[in-house]
Design goal:
heterodimer; A: 701 residues; mainly alpha; 5-stranded antiparallel β-sheet; 7 strands; 63% helix; B: 467 residues; alpha+beta; 12 strands; 46% helix; disordered N terminus
Chain lengths: 701, 467
């Protein structure tokens, strides 16, 4: 097809598609390189003369029709990845939207064999909202790992088939099958079924593995023990369908294998598979009867707990084992003793129906009567509770229930378009719920944000969509209204606080926008106060903004964090040296408000500043320390002769602020200062001395 | 399955087949030991060496003019490839396996054998012939399909007996409205609400319809039938609990739409005539999420309808699917889970017979506690009883009769009328709860029989009388 302009278009589009997949393997989907590669591919697709780019996949090679496309590195990688994803044909519509092409590239670039647990690549594409690109899965043969069947073995199979009970013959199907086995070329057999296979494959571990492969469609591998664990019920089912003599041998082998498993696995198998199967079909009896007495008793005892709800269940299971009389009598006594020690035969102070007692009730009714199903008083009360609970769901709560469901769905829905649609509706529901019940709205926001966090690593676009929803909800006007409603609420668990906490980063984003937009200083102050009031809830999400380029933003975040209490000193420490004075001042004040020893140390350290205005800020901050820490710092600072000389006003304000609150125990600190009141040549030191004298006088009094 | 096919960079089964074919043709033209033959063996060895660097064997399957490497298909792109493939297929060889360590002589003997056979299919097995030539590391076999189904049943698409007219219309309407959803449409709240109103008035109050819903359903249980049945049973259970009309509508709407997510499950999986393998099962397990997603984005429905669709396979004890981190399902979901389970058990499946009501109730009883809400199970069993009205049963005395009344206190011992015929037809009425002088029951119900044993169309007393 060389020289055909259409071919050139195809080669180019396919090459650019391969390139886009390569870029998505290396770079994040939102990166400029990925976006550019998508745009290039889209342009090439538009140039195609046909409706779509249609490619066939071979290992390391892509075909268009019958012609291989030139083997570039990008095309080789595309071929390799598609081949590994079991794609045989690919069709990319000319008008594929960019986001679908991006999803396809990301999906293919990250495809892994393990993903196939949830469906093939071709199936997953549609689920992930890629509708313009379709992949046809390769029609793969499942060849079972079974020894080649010889003609002699087939002759034995024919005999076995004749010996089976007619009702165990599998019914005619529609001819479809999932797997193949190898037979010798001289064998005359058209197909075999699973019961045949159970005859042909004598080793049960091999058979279990084969059944596992069939069940998994080849998508998963299992260890021998795992395969046996997963398929023991199927083995029992199949062995039960074999002719009696063969079945007996197989069950003997299976019982021996069961005994070789570790006790924990054996117990789990007994409890989860064998006993339910015994009750359900009775077929497991043939295996269980072959176990040693001790194992049998343990197996029966696993049903003991269930007797509370279903009296007589143990007896029913025991009867279904159909043991010979002598063994039955001996085991019945052992089981009775272990489940019901103490009371004599015939007493009925336990739910356990004694095995050693003779039951006269009809065999068919035993299990029905075993389950206590009458609507007694307790059940009636529970049903009343259910009625009340169902009726208690008011319309507003219905909204919160809808949102809860929506949050659950966000974690599971794979199609990003569907998630976006849901979130648009969620936004409306959330706004309405915020108006009617802020507390429930906080719960709903929390659910949605948790869902976003849970998927953030593997489905970032969904997490981003939820973040976007929160940002759209948490607008500046929303914050204004919140401040209006909740400012000054003393309850630390108020719904408004819960909502802010749930909104987290979104509320800070909104706050930043609000500060930019709101012209009224009074309103700004009110909202600022509201944010500070909730500083404890917002501190963690405010911290990232401390490195913002806008000093106004940084200052406001510092202020909010200052209201969060101890724990944020390290983040504020660098900001006391911020080039913008107003940020530095706010940082010192915030540390003073936090008032922890660590914060105090940072503030006091700034008293040594050369820059007088910075030093003044530190002095100002010290005065705002909480009383306890302030007194501690004051005691230390007032003993510092250098400070007394350099900053007598600060020292005086410390005396007036902290000594005045509790005058006891200051003599040792204040006495050395008293003499300063006679320094008439230094009015500031004299004032300090007088303040100390006044304070000391009060303290002595 | 080895990773051979996936790992291969340049190797395809066709390369091996062509090399083998080349060797075979050389044997026809040149004497043994000729350079051309030696070169052909070299070529085959070279190709195989690539495989044996990392793998113990190479297995090529030939099915329907396609060559597979360890199961993975490789399209035959040229005539030479097609010839190479057909040469083996003419000898009824469908699988060629060569193991690591194969010797040069073995390859030559294998090619020689193929050459000698020409197009003549040998009477003995190829494996035996190869062994006779001393070729131990090459096998040539046929492939036989394995029927992996335990059993399969083909059920009629519709019930063979005449349905109660109100119920039949509900099914028709559901066929249209739920069918439209399955064809990709948005759920139409108005038409579905009309359907629910009809079910409420004409089906849930009709004893005949209810007996048809509660009994064994020996026809294909399409999603729309199942949905109508589950909605009706949910309505009944809701009434039994005492829910008000508004909650009943919310419940029945959720019940009607709980399975809409199946629309995105491939139909060959939904109708597969056999048990699903684990991969298919995982795909089916997506339907609650898909359904909830559809309903969340649709308008005009109750707020809890998507939640019930999402949670109807969640278990009371916190298990089930999808994984919602041990959240206990909403109460409406718990109600729907009980009736959904019963309806599914008494419905026909491609891989099993439908269960009779008492067996279905027994399974509900076993599931109560861990999987289903025990109080709701008890309420439901007391409502439908082990032997729903209209059931044909046999007593321990060998009598056959139709259940005409039941008791909450003793659901195992209903009142029956011996023989067949309608409600008013003559027949002895027997209360199986009667006891003898010693306080023992005179008789028990031992089994439910197909309706045809007694009467193809019994008309029991109204359910309300007993419920």
């Amino acid at each position: 097809m060389k020289g055909d302009p259409r071919d050139d278009g195809v080669s180019q589009a396919a090459g650019l598609l391969g390139r886009a997949v390569q870029q998505h393997r290396i770079y994040p989907a939102a990166s400029p390189l990925c976006l550019e590669s998508i745009n290039n591919c889209l342009s090439a697709l538009e140039q195609l003369s046909g409706e779509a780019l249609e490619l066939r996949v071979a290992p390391r090679q892509i075909f268009h029709g019958a012609d291989p496309l030139p083997g570039t590195a990008a095309l080789s990688e595309l071929a390799d990845r598609l081949f590994r994803a079991d794609v045989e044909e690919l069709r990319v519509n000319r008008e594929t939207p960019a986001k679908e092409l991006g999803r396809f590239c990301r999906q293919l670039a990250t495809w892994d064999r393990r993903n196939e647990r949830d469906g093939s690549f071709a199936e997953i594409l549609g689920e992930r909202g890629v509708n313009s690109i379709t992949a046809r899965a390769a029609d793969k043969l499942e060849i079972l790992e079974v020894d080649v069947i010889s003609n002699e073995r087939l002759a034995q199979l024919s005999e076995e088939r004749r010996a089976r009970a007619p009702e165990d013959q599998p019914r005619e199907g529609d001819g479809s099958h999932q797997a193949w086995i190898q037979v010798d070329t001289d064998c005359d057999v058209e197909s075999i079924d699973l019961v045949d296979l159970a005859f042909l494959v004598e080793n049960q571990a091999d058979l279990a593995q084969v059944l596992y492969d069939i069940a998994e469609g080849g998508a998963q591998r299992a260890s021998g023990a795992e395969a046996l664990r997963e398929n023991i019920a199927e083995l029992i089912e199949l062995y039960s369908s074999l002719s009696p003599r063969v079945a007996e041998n197989r069950f003997d082998d299976l019982a021996r294998t069961l005994m070789t498993l570790d006790p924990e696995t054996r117990e789990a198998l007994t409890q989860d598979v064998l006993m339910p199967d015994l009750l359900e079909t009775g077929k497991a009896a043939r295996l269980l009867q072959l176990l040693p007495d001790e194992e049998m008793v343990d197996a029966i005892r696993t049903l003991g707990e269930l007797e509370v709800g279903a009296p007589g269940l143990v007896k029913l299971a025991f009867d279904r084992l159909a043991l010979p009389d002598e063994r039955r009598v001996a085991l019945a006594r052992t089981v009775d003793e272990s489940l019901h020690p103490g009371p004599e035969e015939g007493e009925s102070d336990s739910t356990h129906v004694r095995l050693s007692a003779d039951g006269s009730e009809s065999q068919d009714l035993q299990e029905y009567t075993a389950h206590e199903l009458s609507v007694d008083e307790e059940t009636a009360a529970e049903l009343d509770r259910i009625k009340t609970a169902v009726e208690a769901v008011q319309p507003a709560e219905g909204g919160s229930e809808w949102l809860r469901g929506c949050a659950n769905l966000v974690r599971h829905v794979r199609n990003p378009d569907h998630v976006e649609e849901m979130l648009e509706l969620a936004a409306e529901a959330l706004v309405s719920l915020i108006r009617s019940d802020a507390g429930k709205a906080a719960g709903a926001v929390d659910d949605l944000c948790s869902a976003a966090d849970a998927v953030r690593d593997h489905r970032p676009e969904v997490a981003e969509a939820v973040d976007g929803l929160m940002l759209s909800i948490c607008s500046p006007s929303f914050l204004r209204a919140q401040a209006q409603d909740w400012l000054g609420q003393e309850d630390p668990d108020s719904a408004g606080r819960a909502l802010l906490l749930a909104l987290g980063t979104a509320s800070i984003e909104a706050f930043v926008r609000f500060l930019d937009e709101e012209p009224s200083r009074a309103v700004r102050r009110r909202v600022m106060d509201f944010m500070c009031e909730n500083g404890r809830a917002l501190a963690a999400v405010s911290i990232p903004y401390l490195s913002d380029e806008r000093w106004t933003v940084v200052r406001n975040m510092v202020r909010i964090i200052g209201f969060a209490g101890p724990g944020h000193e390290a983040q504020l420490a660098p900001l006391v040296g911020h080039p913008e004075d107003r940020v530095a001042r706010e940082a010192l004040l915030a540390l003073a408000r936090i008032g922890s020893p660590e914060a105090a140390k940072l503030v006091v350290g700034r008293l040594e500043e050369e820059n007088p205005s910075r030093r003044a800020m530190a002095e100002e901050s010290i005065r705002t320390f909480p009383v306890e820490e302030g007194r501690r710092q004051a005691r230390r600072l007032l003993a510092d002769q250098r400070l007394l000389r350099r900053s007598p006003e600060l020292a005086r304000s410390l005396v007036e602020r902290f000594v005045a609150t509790d005058r006891t125990g200051w003599e040792d600190v204040l006495s050395p200062i008293l003499s300063l009141r006679f320094r008439f040549w230094n009015r500031r030191q004299m004032a300090l001395g007088r303040a100390a004298a006044a304070a000391l006088k009060g303290s002595r009094r | 399955m080895s990773g051979l096919a996936r790992d291969s960079r340049t190797l395809t089964p066709l390369v091996i087949l062509r090399a083998l074919s080349g060797l075979r043709r050389s044997l026809a033209l040149y004497p043994s030991g000729h350079t051309v033959i030696e070169q052909a063996i070299d070529e085959l060895e070279r190709v195989l060496e690539q495989v044996f660097v990392e793998h113990d064997r190479v297995r090529i399957e030939l099915v329907d003019k396609t060559a597979h490497l360890e199961g993975y298909p490789f399209r035959v792109e040229s005539h030479s490839n097609a010839d190479a493939l057909e040469e083996l297929q003419r000898l009824e060889i469908e699988c060629l396996q060569i193991e690591r360590g194969v010797e040069r002589d073995e390859l030559a003997e294998m090619a020689g054998l193929l050459h000698r056979l020409g197009d003549r299919v040998p009477e003995d097995s190829m494996r035996g012939l190869l062994l006779a030539e001393g070729v131990k590391r090459v096998t040539m076999t046929r492939l036989v399909p394995v029927e992996t189904r335990f059993q399969s049943f083909e059920w009629p698409s519709e019930p063979e007996s005449i349905l109660e007219p109100g119920y039949a219309r509900a099914l028709d309407d559901a066929h249209d409205s739920i069918g439209a959803i399955f064809e990709g449409g948005t759920p139409d709240a108005q038409s579905l609400h009309q359907l629910l109103a009809w079910i409420s008035e004409q089906v849930a109050d009709s004893t005949s319809a209810l007996s048809q819903i509660l009994s064994v359903k020996r026809y294909e249980n399409h999603t729309y039938c199942h949905s109508v049945n589950v909605a009706t049973l949910a309505m009944l259970l809701g009434r039994r609990i005492g829910l008000e009309e508004a909650e009943l509508m919310s419940l029945s709407e959720a019940a009607l739409l709980h399975d809409v997510g199946k629309r995105q499950i491939p139909s060959d999986i939904l109708t597969k005539p056999g048990p699903l393998n684990r991969r298919e099962w995982r795909i089916v397990q997506r339907h609650p999420v898909i359904g909830a997603s559809i309903l969340t984005r649709a308008s005009g429905f109750e707020p809890l309808t998507p939640t019930v669709a999402l949670e109807h396979h969640r278990e009371y004890g916190g298990g089930g699917y999808p994984d919602l981190e041990e959240q206990r399902p909403h109460l409406l979901s718990q109600i729907v889970a009980v009736v959904d389970t019963y309806e599914a058990l008494t419905g026909a499946r491609p891989y099993r017979e439908p269960l009779v009501p008492e067996e279905a109730c027994l399974i509900l009883a076993r599931m109560a506690g861990e999987k289903l809400n025990p109080a709701l199970v008890k309420a439901f069993v007391s409502l439908v009883t082990f032997f729903p009205l209209g059931s044909v049963v046999r007593t321990s005395l060998g009598e056959i009769g139709v259940v005409i009344d039941t008791s909450e206190d003793d659901p195992l011992h209903p009142v029956i009328r011996l023989g067949g015929g309608g409600l008013d037809s003559p027949g002895t009425r027997i209360d199986t709860a009667d006891r003898d002088a010693g306080g023992e029951y005179v008789r028990h119900i031992v089994e439910t029989l197909p309706r045809s044993v007694a009467d193809p169309d019994p008309e029991p007393e109204p359910l309300a009388a007993s419920a």
